[in-house]
Structures are given as C-alpha cells and as structure tokens.
C-alpha cells in the first residue's frame, strides 16, 4: 500500500464518509508538475484556504493553492455546515476572558462572516442550498437554568438580536423548555459552496492544485512533490498548522466530534438549528454539547443532522466509551428530542481545534513576518474560517480591520490559565502513561481483520494494522511531530495522536497535522 494513490487514500482513510463528500463528486483539480511562483501561496483546500484565495484574488493578487487530497477532503468536509454567531462557547465567558467591548467585537465579526457568505453565494450564484434559519439554545440537564438568563443578557450586551422563548419549534420535548432564539443564522451544502469559491478563484486567474502534499514550508514558499512554489506571502490553512512545531500547539487542543444524519419526511420539521448548552459534568475542558439542523435532501425527504459526544483526540478510552458507543449515545439523544426517524443514512466524525480562550488564531504566525495561519475553529469553523480569509486579506493588503488584534495568534489570554493547566496536565499524564503501559495487545495474532492496535517491542511502540485480507502493516507508533504515542481509532480506522491531534491512516499516511510526514515503516 506504500505506493497507493494519495487521493484514493484520502477518500478511504476514514471508515465513514460525510454526507457532503458522498453527495458531491470529489473536487479534484490538476496536480503540481512544475515549479510555480505567485504573490500568495495558500496551503489547504478547505473553507479557510479557499476563502483566503477568493479574497486575495479579488484584491488583485496572484494566488497558488495546494491541497494534499481533494478540496474539502479535510475537516471542512466533516462539518455540519452551520453558519452561526451562536458560538459554542458562552458570551458571558468571552466577557470574562476579554471584557465586554471585545465580546461585542466577537459577535460583530461572526455576524459579518455570516453576511459575507450570504453575499458571496448571491454574487457568484453558488447553488449550495443556502438558507436563513433561526437557532435555539436550550439548557442541558447538567447545566443551571440561570446560566441561560446570563447568556441572554451577555448576547444582548454584545449587540445580538436574541430573545428568550418559552417553547422550542420542532422539538416535542421542547414544548415547555425555555430557549434563547438566535434569529437569521445560515446553513448550506459545504462542498457545493467550496466548488463555487474554487470556480471563482480559477476564473480570476488563481491556480489550484490537488493531490499535492506539501513537504516543507519556509519564508520563501514551499516544496511539494519535488517542486518549489515561491511566494511573497504564505498562508497555512490546514486546520492545525503544519508549519509550526510547538508554539500554537500549546494554545489549542484537538477534539473528536461525532455526527449522524437521518432521513425524515419533508415538512415534519421546520428548517432551524438546535443546540444544548453542553454536559457540565464532563471531564473535558471543552464541555461537549449537541448541535442539530435540517438539510434538504430531495423532493420527499430532509436530512436531520445531529452532532456531539466529543472527546479529546486519542483519549476516547479515558471515559471507557468506545467510538461506536458514542454514535449510539448520539442516536439515543437525538431520538429523545426529535423522534421522527428510524434509519441512519450517514454517520461520520470530525476534528475540532479548541483554543484555550475560545477564539480562532488568525494572522501572522508568531515569529514570522510573511507566514500566516488560520486555526482554532472551536466548533464554529464556517464563520471562523471565513473571518480568516477576510482578516488575512486585509493584513496582506494593508487595509484596516477591527478584528486583527482580537484574533492575533500571538495573543496571551491570562484569564484562561486554569483551563490551560487542566489541558496540559491531561496531555502530560497521557504521554507518560502511554510510554509506560505495555500496549493494547501482546501479540499481533490477537488482532481481527480491519483492526489496529499499539504493541510494545521492548522500548519500541509499534502501530499494527491487520487488513481485510489478513495481511499485517506495521509502523512506528510514535508521532513524528513531538513524540506522542498514537492510539487506534476504530471508527475512522486511523492512528491518532493524543498530544496535538495528528492523525494517520491505518497504513501510516499522515491525514491531519501538525505532523507533516508519514509514520516510519517497521518490518
């Protein structure tokens, strides 16, 4: 499998395909086959990279975009595609971290991103099922009802047009539940939106290359597939920055999140969004919450898309809840609140980067003058990544932008110290434990088909995968980024790093940064 086609590997690396990538032909473009030069090089073909390419092309810059799979094959294709200023962190917490004025700026920025997406859909005539819908935030049973009142007051101070309602449309369990109504949110078919952005970039003279893995990045550009791409500015838009060894990875932490999509008869539910306030009893700093919406499917059915049951990447075992059990728990929760379906049409998982202070990191990479990053989506990837494109365009063009300081990757937020220490302590404990314990199994003979595990050979940690034909594939189980011991993810059939979220296929091919190289083969 060492010489397998990288795009095919990206397609098959996950056990489950999302609805977005399953319902749209893969967005495959030409592969880089010669040296190139541009004003701006963008690494990453998700919503962050393509929005940046679109904005800079509009500003008259020449742009080259490199993507190691196909457009949307990374975390953008695993979203639930909610475009919202109802953030997955509370506004009263943002006030505590940043103060009222900056919390108001946060709200303004996400509203601007939502408006910008709606505007581009109209200007470029992108057929992507864009809809304006209302969203409803209600209290999780583990949370205090008074916190909903606190959040309403904080959102109003932030200038948002929220209101408290006494019943929740579309939720039988919500007939007597209070909720904060967030009017005028957005939703769309994400991969169709990406295609619209890509078409516009190419029409403006931009170059897009897929199946082009970047091997190294520096201030002069990047090397990929044996060729050099030179640029005055380099934007790393890869979910987790692949240009940075340590700095940004002490400021954010990777989480896995799970999604199901079920067919329901059209007309049963209104198009809307629903969120609970998250499990306050969870051991994780980022309290896992549920998020639900409706997507048009065909003339007879809609898709009810529901997500949640998060855990830190590579640490599902710390709660003794397997990936499959998390899907089952998500199905049970969804049926309890939306009892309209019997069969699950799709299920998939994704990776969310959670910044310790809740806001994305957008701007110059600390220590670099012409390398920029977009990371830390924090469950609001559609708006954070769109802001990434808008802000970096303004930095490069020298335009004023009120959000540059707010999202600066070099910022230090002192009031998040306790959460930071919890996350780092959990990471350090995991690293120490994983190096000491003997492994998942003692002998490879214990493995079933299409299963993986970590075994110990003396002091060496080995990642072993047994394919469907019974052949074994072995790699080093040590992450090439900073030496974390990988964990087998049976849902995605991948090896995941619990330190900073790097992920590798069952055969050792890197599929998520910050690692940029494959696992070392072991015979």
Plain-language structure description:
With 523 residues, the chain is α+β, with helices and mostly antiparallel strands. It is built from ten helices and 24 strands. The strands form four sheets. Strands 3, 4, 5, 6, 11, 12, 13, 14 and 15 form a nine-stranded mixed β-sheet that branches. Strands 1, 2, 7, 8, 9, 10, 16 and 17 form an eight-stranded mixed β-sheet that branches. Strands 21-22-23-24 form a four-stranded antiparallel β-sheet, with no helix packed on it. Helix 3 runs parallel beside helix 7 (190-203), helix 3 (47-58) packs parallel to helix 9 and helix 4 packs across helix 5. It is globular and about 60 Å long. The relative contact order is 0.15.
């Amino acid at each position: 499998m060492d010489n397998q086609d990288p795009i095919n590997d990206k397609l098959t690396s996950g056990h489950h395909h999302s609805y977005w990538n399953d319902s749209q032909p893969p967005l495959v473009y030409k592969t880089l086959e010669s040296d190139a030069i541009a004003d701006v090089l963008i690494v990453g073909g998700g919503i962050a990279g393509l929005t940046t390419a679109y904005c800079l092309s509009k500003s008259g810059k020449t742009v080259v975009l490199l993507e190691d799979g196909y457009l949307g094959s990374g975390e953008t294709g695993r979203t639930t595609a909610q475009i919202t200023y109802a953030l997955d962190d509370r506004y009263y917490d943002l006030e505590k971290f940043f103060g009222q004025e900056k919390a108001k700026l946060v709200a303004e920025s996400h509203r601007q991103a939502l408006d910008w997406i709606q505007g581009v859909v109209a200007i470029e005539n992108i057929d992507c099922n864009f809809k304006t819908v209302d969203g409803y935030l209600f209290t999780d049973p583990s949370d205090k009802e008074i916190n909903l009142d606190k959040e309403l007051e904080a959102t109003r101070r932030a200038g948002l047009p929220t209101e408290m309602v006494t019943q929740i449309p579309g939720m039988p369990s919500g007939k007597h539940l209070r909720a904060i109504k967030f009017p005028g949110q957005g939703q769309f078919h994400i991969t169709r939106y990406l295609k619209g952005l890509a078409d516009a970039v190419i029409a403006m003279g931009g170059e897009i290359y897929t199946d082009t893995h970047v091997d190294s990045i520096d201030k002069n550009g990047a090397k990929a597939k044996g060729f050099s791409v030179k640029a005055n500015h380099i934007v790393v838009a890869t979910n987790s920055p692949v240009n940075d060894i340590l700095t940004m990875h002490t400021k954010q932490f990777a989480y896995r999140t799970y999604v199901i999509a079920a067919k329901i008869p059209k007309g049963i539910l209104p198009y809307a969004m629903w969120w609970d306030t998250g499990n306050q009893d969870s051991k994780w700093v980022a309290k896992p919450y549920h998020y639900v919406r409706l997507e048009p499917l065909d003339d007879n059915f809609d898709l009810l898309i529901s997500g949640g049951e998060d855990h830190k990447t590579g640490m599902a075992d710390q709660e003794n809840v397997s990936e499959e059990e998390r899907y089952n728990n998500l199905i049970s929760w969804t049926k309890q609140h939306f009892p309209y379906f019997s069969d699950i049409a799709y299920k998939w998982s994704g990776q969310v980067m959670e910044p310790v202070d809740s806001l994305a990191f957008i701007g110059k990479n600390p220590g670099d003058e012409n390398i920029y990053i977009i990371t830390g989506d924090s469950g609001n990837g559609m708006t954070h990544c769109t802001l990434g494109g808008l802000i970096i365009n303004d930095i490069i063009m020298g335009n004023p932008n009120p959000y540059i300081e707010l999202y600066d990757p070099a910022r230090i937020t002192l009031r998040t110290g306790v959460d930071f220490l919890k996350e780092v302590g959990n990471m350090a404990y995991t690293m120490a434990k994983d190096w000491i314990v003997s492994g998942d199994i003692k002998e490879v003979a214990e493995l079933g088909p299409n299963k993986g595990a970590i075994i110990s050979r003396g002091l060496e940690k080995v990642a072993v995968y047994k394919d469907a034909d019974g052949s074994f594939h072995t790699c080093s189980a040590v992450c090439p980024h900073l030496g974390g011991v990988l964990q087998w993810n049976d849902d995605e059939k991948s090896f995941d790093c619990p330190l900073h979220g790097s992920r590798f296929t069952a055969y050792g091919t890197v599929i998520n940064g910050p690692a940029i190289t494959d696992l070392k083969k072991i015979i």
